[in-house]
Fold:
Amino acid sequence: MSDIILEALNLNKTYTQRSGRFGFNTTHIKALDDVSIQLKQGTTLAVVGESGSGKSTLARCLLQLQPFDSGDVIFQGQHLAQLHKEDLRGVRKHLQMVFQDPFASLNPRMRVGEIVGEGLLIHGVGSTASRIALVHQMLERVGLTAADATKYPHQFSGGQRQRIGIARALVLQPKVVICDEPVSALDVSVQAQILLLLKSLQAEMGLSYIFISHDLRVVRHIANDIVVMHKGKIVEQGAVEDIYTSPQQPYTQQLLQAIPGRKAA
Amino acid sequence: MSEILRISQLNVTPKNDTSRLLVNQANFSLSTGKTTCIVGESGSGKSLTALTIMGLLSKQLQASGNVVFQGQDITQLDDKAMQTIRGAKIGMIFQEPMTSLNPVLTVGYQIGEPLTAHLRLKGQALKSRVAELLEQVGIPASRADSYPDELSGGQRQRVMIAMSIACEPALLIADEPTTALDVTVQAQVLKLLDALKTRMNMAMLFITHDFGVVADIADDVIVMFRGEIVETGTRDQVLNHPQHPYTKALLACVPDAEGLKTLKPIDYAWLSQEATA
Structure:
């Protein structure tokens, strides 16, 4: 159970920004400052922090969607930063992502079936007929119907679109799914549906999640372990139980106290 | 605790389809010194209710029913009369602190606008009042000459708050004022609003979809579902002893920080059965 499936070692990433009059000066912003995390097989690791803490940069660096300055990402023993493009593409099949905005992350000109099946096509999985069957299966698994495959994204509500995004990520039978604020744009009732769906899919397909969120109440319900980030640095990490009941760092304590509706102790 | 606003039999419909009730027979009242939260999911009609009070409904929509503010039915007022109330006696804070400020005007100028328009303040008097307001919302007075892009999201929302309370309104309407903010900033802004409400003895109508925020700030709670008010009561009644099936179902979807709850999504089919039963 406790095998590490995905690991980041000492990641550093600095953004350079033009500043000052006419942009003559440059400022460096450390988005990731010596960040190391470990994701255990079959579990959920939550990355929490406020805007600008570097949590989304971490997600993109893990997937090699963005180059980092130094450090390493190891997935099942492979050093991703050293892989060639073609090899990386093979690995990406196992590393998928669910995005935050269900309105912006689906191409409005593609039918749902094409959106969900595109990964299968790119990775050359099966024949046309078997691809269609897989897409239909996956749509039903996330609570949509096979008939929805011929519709366009605008015909769906926010929650349904997020289900499409999840189907797209899971149709390739990945090992790790990185969810970047997957429920923060949704109403609370829809949010509960999606959280439960993610949980049951995890159990069924043996998925490991990296769950990026700013909502500490949601994290409490889905994560096993948690990493607290602040200004590009990891402030504290550990099991969810431990962090919520006895946070060690002042910043974590401050974050937990700021949760709205927390019963005043 | 005197009543300051009473809404009765408020309907909001599109002009071209009056059978579609976006707000359906809403009745409630607000009292001085109290915070009333309207909670509901998107499309439940909570923002439309607030916009109706302000007289800011889109031209494609129409409202019927009565909105009585300080003894006067403000639905009957013309634009000019409404302008003497809006911003002066009723203040409003909008959701998006990034888009609701004018980027080419200094924040000091923007906070001063309602003071000039309603109270005819000028020159030194205006300047010192703006400085005072900035201090009240926790921003150094020297920031009056800053432009919105030089401020953080939380600071911009504080500027919005300063603008909305500039003329010491009797009623403050806040439409999801903290939704776009980080949790720690959100906690600060909520605290600030609560303190201002007490100090200025305002009535506050606070629109939110977050039950955590409700627990922190509300005296009274109104729950809306598909245009209808399904439940009203004190914070304790609604949060701890909900009566309506929808309120119960909605509360069951809210994750808690303690992780004790089993989340249960709303079963809408069951809900409509329950409603007809």
User: Anything to note?
Assistant: DSSP finds ten helices and ten strands in chain B. The CA atoms of residues 123 and 140 of chain B lie 20 Å apart.
